[in-house]
Amino acid sequence: MKILELHYSTAAAGAERLVIDLSNELSRNNELVLCTTDDDSILENSYYKNEISARIKYINLKCKSGLGVKSIWRILKIIKEEKPDIVHSHANLITLFLPAILLPGIRYFHTIHNLAERCLINKNLKFIYKWFYKKKVQPVTISQLCLDSYKKLYNMDNAINIVNGRSRLQQTTDYDKVTIELNELRIHDDDKIFVHVARCAKAKNQKLLVDTFNRFLNEGNHGILILIGTAYDSEENIHILNNAQKGIYWLGAKNNVGDYLLQADFFVLSSLFEGLPISLLEAISCGVIPICTPAGGIPDVINSESNGYVSKSFDADDFYYTLKRAFDDEKYFNRIHLEEYFENNFSMRHCAEGYFNAFSHNDTE
User: Fold this and answer.
1) What is the pTM of this model?
2) In the chain, fewer beta carbons within 10 Å around the N or the C end?
3) Which structural domain range is residue 84 located in?
4) Residue 365 domain-assigned?
């Protein structure tokens, strides 16, 4: 089977991480083409590029925007030239409009990486999206909540739900350096390490996270918070860092996140909106105790306190008491169970099998 995976870039973000892992896994037994639209000579568009397997044919369209007219036409041209059996887009559904109509001999799939309404770029396009999902493109959702949002928005029950997966994180050659770095950042010898991995953005709600950890420190608890990701120093976000107390550290973007998670005690997410965060799966794969708000598909993953902790709401007190309960009960938590839970439900092998089975299905409607 020849599969063409389509996305905007290999930037440092969750959907991009999934695209790389999924493409690498599917390429083990299939001919795989990975096509990205946004110019990869721009560093931020090629963060994961060096992780693409040598088995994969990689094509970059050198466009300024994945939704520009030039991109749409170049996507059509590449699909026509490559003649894949399957085209699977992780970008906006618009990227498949022309190919799905002009090249009907190919099967088209579109993964919706968030709540359906948040992936609809213009409400006036709702009925066009619905027509494509009904007639031309197989929709795929990534969590039960995302599936429910698709059903509600389009009043259709034809989506396939394939839960996100992730390859298990491994130590890099920088692991020992990270050990030294974390020890130097500790204020007390018994400080627990909390790690947050995400770009600083309103949807990720880092203000709540920093305010909560400030309160945690002010009440005399021993711990440090490590912030990994970009944009904390932007004009709109710098106030968050300025409000952070000693014990909260922003380290910027890291391509060895596993070295930090493998030495962490807790993983924290304060998001307002999510699909199913890859960073959460990474943490679980390392046996790190997750503490999260109930955003998007997170409650589908952390469905009991044997798998982690989810606050009842986005309220500051709720989130704080959830974090404090996890901290107080840490010694009772079974990390081996958490790693087994990951392997049985969220490994990339498990995820890729779901996509391959969907691609192999005989139905073309």
Assistant:
1) 0.82
2) C
3) 2-167+347-360
4) no
